[in-house]
Fold this protein.
Amino acid sequence: MLLLIFGIILYAVTVHDILKTTLSMEGGGWLTNHFSKFLWKVSFLASRKKGDSKLLGKTGYLILTGIIILWVALLWSSFCLVLFSDPGSVVTSANKTAVQGVEKLYFAGYTISTLGSGEYIAGNDFWRIITNVFSFTGLVLLTMSVTYFVPLLQAVIDQQKLAVQISCYGRTPQEMIINAYDGEHYQGLTANASDLTLSLIKHTQNHKAYPVIHYFHNSDKRFNIILELSKMHECFVILENLMDDQYQPAENELRSLKVAFENYFKIITEITDAKDQATNEAPKIKTDLLLEQNFISRKKNLPDLHSRKVFSKLVENDGWGWNDIQGSDAS
């Protein structure tokens, strides 16, 4: 009886996790999320916490494969527990002799995979119904996997496109500001920034629907999404807080980007532990190039922004350092 209860509980938990992950569009199931975090941490440690590691660059695809294996293993295990609760649950098709051990594992496996082998069959009508339930669940698992992974991989492509889009503005936050300034507006960063803002909003919503894309790491720091978003956020912080009055963008020019970042922080802190880990002092901000070109006439005190601490932790947890954003030591 205990085996039957444990099997039913494991089946219910597994199905709930699959449905939550593939259909809810509100993030992955508890098992899937924690399993993904575990695999990332293992890969991160194996790569010695280096962002340019080739292993980290492949971790996202390894996690996707691991999720499928996890779902199959849990479903298979739950069916095995249920079958082992009754000695007569599975019999041979030839002489109706009850089978045990490996034969039941085999029966559970080919039932879930919907192969339909006829060597063994359910022992009675009750077990025929149970077998049908697990067979249909296996079929749904295969279908759900396809419908989940295809748009997820498209979200990974969109994530990479956003990283490339931001990188086109410059290699550092200061360069991005100087390159965007046309004498009146910061083209693309603030004025006419609808494309950039919409791309960030889409990236954020993809994170909400498919949290696993956070683990699709680009080992090329020129196009790494965490680094590029950190650079763009640093630009926003400088424009909003440090620029001289004549170079200060109008408040309405910053509004759309500010809202987009607020939405991003809301989602990313739900997916990762960066918010809770971001307890240290925020990194210093580098403004020497802007001072040289008179965008800033004097150094100003920057507010203690928790968002910068969060980005600093995200960068660290992705295997990089703040110098990868600023170009050299901040001053």
